[in-house]
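Subject: NDP-hexose 2,3-dehydratase

B.,
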Amino acid sequence: MVSLPAGPAGGLVRSLPPESYLADFAGAEFIDWFARCSAAARCRVTRTPLTELRRWRFDADTGNLGHDSGAFFVVEGLQVRTGYGPVREWSQPIINQPEIGILGMLVKEVDGVPYCLVQAKIEPGNHNGIQVSPTVQATRSNYTRIHQGRSTRYLEYFTDPGAGRTLVDVLQSEQGSWFLRKRNRNMVVQVTEDVPAGEDHHWLPLPELRRLLRIDGLVNMDTRTVLACLPADTFPASQPVPAGDAASALVLSTTGRGRALNDTATVLRWFTGAKSRHELSAHRIPLRDLPGWRSTPEQITHEDGRHFSIIGVTAEVGNREVAAWDQPLLYPEGRGVVAFVIKVIEGVAHLLVHARFQPGLLDGMEMGPTVQCVPENYPDGPPRFLDYVLNAPRERVLYNAVLAEEGGRFYHSQNNYLLVEAGDDFPTAVPEDYCWMTAHQLTLLLRHGYYVNVEARSLLACLQSW
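Prediction pasted inline below.
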């Protein structure tokens, strides 16, 4: 994979000119536009003690950390008890952001080719400053202008009925280990009229955008989740399908033209059974009452140094609605691994899906990848299938890239995303919390919220790039 330059931990953060690593994946127009945006980007992010964040306060009674407007989000405590997994009880800080934001992509067809209006957007937690984002990526607090900054461009296409043809409009969850019941409205709206691209926006062919997913750290999480929700038959590929190899098996998996091992009724019964089998409870508690966590004026950390910290930053960004602000960010300890094991069954590629509990999810459990973990958080032994995907022969690794997570709430959060083809030794019979599904089956479930978690959605988008 091709890697983007990593930014420093503090101070001035800028992406370097992209010509050297984009030429194999993108056309000249995108390269020129992204180079201009990178050169003009200004983002200074500096660590600031939590007690010195402007307009953020620790509540005198609970110790919860919130904004003095009452908007945006609150960092509070969560007490978790479960009959699922090796750890049955723990406490942790969590981000409570109850408002629903908009992740919206405008699309149009030109000579039969779909184009997406993407944005070059900077977030304070991005490790490389600037990333390719959807047309609109805004929290409700931001697009209602509680910050008293500039209005969100193109917002009307996603809020005004009749502004275009709606292809996707669905509420989806975000990271259930770090957010409490966080949801965003994932939208794709098709237009026929000419919509001019502002200097931070660019009309990019959809096939080219999908190719860019092969580059480390370039396409942000919000773009990936929106792309995953786009049904495969909305803009069908025109190229012929190769026969008798992994590519043909993946195409059949994506389009639904092959037979699935488990039909939809079987899949839904499996998932409902998994949710019913485990006792899950997650209760909000005051941040100051969290056992095992240390709070200092600088940060909030776990006593064993693992998991994550809550830190504060001061951000100065040149192309945002507000030029400067302070905020807390969640800073993960270690890089995660997110992977699907893929097995060809009767000529069709199947993904090994895991019914995964995460305490912040609205319903407690969603369908996730085969592997989803930070290896450093498992000192007593790796979780199931981690060694299999990390030790897979090179020829069986169909996709491998390091992609960033939400830079608006997480600081330098990255996961190694993998698609690994199973060998003949990998059994079709799997543990009860796992199920073989086609990509088409997962994509159909994305018409509804709270079935497929954000990590699995990112991998579905990555599968499209392959």
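The first helix runs from residue 19 to 22.

T.
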